[in-house]
Design a protein that fits this description.
This is DUF4437 domain-containing protein. It holds the Pfam family DUF4437. It comes from Streptosporangium amethystogenes subsp. fukuiense. By secondary structure, the chain is mainly beta. The chain has 2 domains: 135 residues, Sandwich (Jelly Rolls); 188 residues, Sandwich (Jelly Rolls). The chain contains 3 helices and 27 strands. β20 and β21 form a beta hairpin. The longest helix has 16 residues.
Length: 416
């Protein structure tokens, strides 16, 4: 599994010698995120000299995207925006990168292994089913996203879509002023590297060189695109379905038994609302964009509620607790009453004294994928699973303290 990484700027990573077996030349890599169980990884590479290697077979689905410089595959040279997809187990032609080139490099479902071959006539691995893709994305046109959310202004370029799993890689651009006031979670993971622009949301600032890897079902949102718009290379390991939440809150706490005042016992709690206090991370321009997003959604007939970022207004967790107490009393709980009461009567008469079952809504376990607790991803709550219409829609999970950048990341609870 990969950790939840939210808003780390690449400058906050250290450089390693690039793991590119069988090649000639010098390169360094920054490891944006990695899965140490299956070898998958997302990397930022710099080539310090011309670099290349001959034909061969990769041990993972492999992708290269040129940020600056040039890449040559099978004799075809592509500059900035060049994209290359080399499926696992499929013979690939020679590839070279010019000195000074900067790229994004992805490995999926395998490690950095590479088997050199004499020619492309080498046999495929059993089960290999896709073909090599070579694209100059700079020459592609932007297409409007069919379901752009609550307002127009979102555009896409598809680079690779797996017809079986739905895994896809794409470039996404949000125009300046595009916003989405809703909070979403998905059945698949989502990761992105910012190649241009500036966007703000609950986990931090998306600007040039920032990266996130968000496991399936992690709640996130309240996006606002700032000056110049924003563009990302974005990947998901399945079809992206959006499930939205509003009026979100969370409260957690407990009793300290050896770290209260003077080492004594102390009860403490914190809510998502508390994390939003202090100087607001939402500028007036930011809030105005969120309100515009809400207004447009309503114009289109959507049923929606007002946007109230955490730290403003009444703490929703306190409202929920008050409602739960009221429900307990209405459901027969023995709250405040002053009539004489004999507790010696026979409980078989139907007068139950147990605490009433409070209605907190659906049990999240009832919303899970049918095989979730027994399949190969049962060890990982953020493991993505294929979803189709009619399947249970899983509840979101909370990743309250994701790995985040010392220079770009923050967390104020809005994504819960």
């Amino acid at each position: 599994m990969r950790p939840h990484v939210e808003m780390i700027h690449e400058d906050d990573y250290i450089w390693h010698a690039a793991e590119l077996p069988g090649g000639e030349g010098r390169a360094s890599e920054r490891r944006l995120s990695a899965d140490e169980e299956d070898g998958s990884g997302s990397l930022r590479l710099d080539f310090h000299t011309d670099w290349g290697r001959g034909p061969g077979i990769h041990h993972a689905n492999t992708e290269y995207y040129v940020l600056d410089g040039s890449m040559t595959y099978g004799g075809r040279r592509i500059g900035k925006g060049g994209y290359l997809y080399l499926p696992k187990g499929v013979p690939a032609d020679a590839v070279t990168f010019a000195e000074g080139t900067r790229i994004l490099h992805y490995r999926e479902y395998g490690d950095a292994g590479f088997d050199p071959m004499q020619s492309l006539a080498a046999p495929r691995w059993e089960g290999a089913r896709e073909d090599v893709i070579v694209i100059d994305s700079e020459a592609m046109r932007w297409d409007a996203v069919p379901n752009a959310g609550p307002m127009p202004g979102l555009f896409i370029k598809y680079l690779h879509v797996d017809p079986v799993t739905g895994f896809y890689t794409r470039l996404v651009h949000a125009q300046e002023g595009w916003a989405d006031h809703r909070l979403a979670h998905h059945p698949c993971y989502e990761e992105a590297y910012t190649v241009q622009g500036h966007m703000e949301y609950n986990f931090g600032t998306l600007d040039l060189g920032t990266y996130f890897f968000r496991p399936a079902r992690v709640k996130h949102g309240h996006f606002t695109t700032m000056e110049g718009g924003a563009t990302w290379l974005l990947r998901s390991d399945g079809e992206l379905h959006n499930w939205y939440t509003e009026n979100e809150w969370v409260r957690w706490g407990g009793e300290a038994i050896n770290y209260g005042p003077e080492g004594g016992r102390m009860r403490w709690s914190q809510s998502a609302h508390d994390l939003g206090r202090g100087p607001s991370r939402r500028t007036e321009q930011d809030l105005e964009m969120l309100r515009a997003s809400l207004a447009y959604a309503r114009e289109q007939g959507a049923v929606d509620t007002d946007v109230h970022p955490h730290g403003q207004g009444t703490d929703k967790s306190l409202i929920a607790i008050a409602k739960a107490v009221d429900a307990a009393r209405l459901q027969g709980g023995h709250g405040d009453h002053d009539h004489p009461h004999d507790h010696s009567h026979d409980h078989e008469e139907g007068h139950a004294h147990g605490a009433p079952a409070l209605d907190w809504g659906a049990d999240p376990a009832t919303l899970e994928h049918p095989d979730e607790r027994t399949d190969t991803g049962a060890h990982d709550r953020g493991h993505g699973r294929a979803w189709k219409s009619g399947d249970p829609i899983p509840a979101p999970i909370i990743s309250s303290l994701p790995v985040r950048s010392r220079s770009r990341g923050y967390w104020d609870g809005e994504g819960l």
